[in-house]
Amino acid sequence: MAVPDWEIIIARHGPTEWSRAGRFSGHTDIPLSAEGRTRAADLGSALRRPLPERIVSSDLTRARQTAEAIALAAGLDPRLIAISSRLREESLGSWEGRTPGRIASTNPDGYARWLAGDIGAFDGREGLAAVARRAVPVVLEQCAGRPRTTGRLVVVTHANTALAIIGALGDIPPGEWADLPCPGPAQAMVLW
Predict the structure, then answer these.
(1) Which of 21, 186, 190, 191 has its CA 20 to 30 A from that of 171?
(2) Three-state secondary structure string covering the chain
């Protein structure tokens, strides 16, 4: 895959009440918790220099709130954030809203697959290959036709979507994506 000539920052949204409770969110639209808002503001402060040239975010509230905090810290108009549903978290099917313990008791085979690093589609989960097919084009579209300057592209998304983007852009075999480093809540990593 041709890597764009941009500095790409993958940022993960801040914590939510569901993340504190250990519940899987997926496509469920959960806002940031008070802690999440504070940590998103801290992330924004950390990412404000050099100035982000573009910010693109998942359309889910927790990611949008994080993107807005990054924009505000950089002195950018939050209305200029590009929003895309293709950057949403992996759809987790019947796992959404449930804790790992509950999934282990009701879907033991699927839960064992997930613990073993299986990133495929099972138990109604979308699978990370499908996530990459929808999310990576968003990143490439944001870079297309724009020469790199001193700024950077900040992509605000979710854990599994971050893994899919990192794996696909890094041309890493999908079987190795579960072992890739992933930013924690309200953290970011530079791809290049």
Answers:
(1) 186
(2) CCCCCCCEEEEECCCEHHHHHCCCCCCCCCCECHHHHHHHHHHHHHHCCCCEEEEEEECCHHHHHHHHHHHHHHCCCHHHCEEEHHHCCCCCHHHCCCCHHHHHHHCHHHHHHHHCCCCCCCCCCCCHHHHHHHHHHHHHHHHCCCCCCCCEEEEEECHHHHHHHHHHHCCCCHHHHHHCCCCCCCCEEECC
Alpha carbon 143 to chain centroid, angstroms: 18
Who's near 74: CB < 8 A, 6+ residues apart?
44, 47, 48, 49, 51, 52
Reported as a single tens digit per residue, the pLDDT across 63-86 is 999 999 999 998 999 999 999 999
Are the beta carbons of 33 and 20 closer than 8 angstroms? yes
User: Which domains are delineated in the chain?
Assistant: 8-190 (3.40.50.1240)
